Task: structure prediction
Amino acid sequence: MKLEETLAKLEDTIKALEREDISLEDSFKEYQKGMEMVKLCNTTIDKIEKEVQLIMDNGDKIEFE
Result:
C-alpha cells in the first residue's frame, strides 16, 4: 500500500474515532488499526528518507518502489 493510501485510511480511522456514537470496543479496534497504520507510515517515511540520503551522498539515481 502506498503512503498516500495509508494516510487516507488513517484519516478515515480518525474520523471513526471522533464519532460520538462509537462504542468503547469499536473505538479500541479503530485505535489499534490506526496505530498499525502509523507504524506503517513511519516505516515507509524512514525508508524514503534513507533513499533520499543515498541520492544526496552518492549523486546516484535510485528507483523508488
Summary: The first helix runs from residue 3 to 18.
